[in-house]
Specification:
Length: about 130
């Protein structure tokens, strides 16, 4: 077990969340789509989640970098962009965007902020 965090509870919390996101992103790339950029973004998401998941089990110099990329990219930037897109669609096209789209993106954004705060509080960075 790698020592990334000073508290084991948060270590396992982060491990479970990253593992679930990794499995979800693998399921996301298996969807049929004709848009190439969605396939490329899906592959990038899988790679980021895999690197973050592997950072729990390896003792490398770049573990915190991989986890920060995961937190900022998948945890904060992705849901924020989705919320902005949904608001854009609502304002410009006057489409009804149901709460089934807003709520998961909002939950992911809040979870990303909580994970970022907990990460900054409980991380252990080794000086090498």
């Amino acid at each position: 077990m790698n020592r990334m965090f000073s508290n084991n509870t948060f270590y396992y919390f982060f491990l479970i969340v990253v593992g679930i996101n990794f499995l979800g992103s693998i399921g996301g790339i298996s969807k049929e789509t004709d848009i190439l950029i969605l396939k490329i973004l899906g592959m990038i998401t899988v790679a980021v989640c895999l690197l973050a998941l592997l950072s729990f089990f390896t003792d490398l110099k770049f573990n915190h970098l991989f986890f920060k990329i995961y937190l900022y990219g998948k945890g904060l930037l992705s849901p924020f962009c989705l919320l902005i897109y949904f608001l854009y669609e609502k304002i410009t096209n006057d489409l009804y965007v149901s709460g089934t789209y807003f709520m998961p993106a909002l939950f992911r954004l809040v979870l990303g902020f909580v994970m970022l705060v907990l990460y900054n509080k409980y991380k252990i960075e080794k000086n090498r």
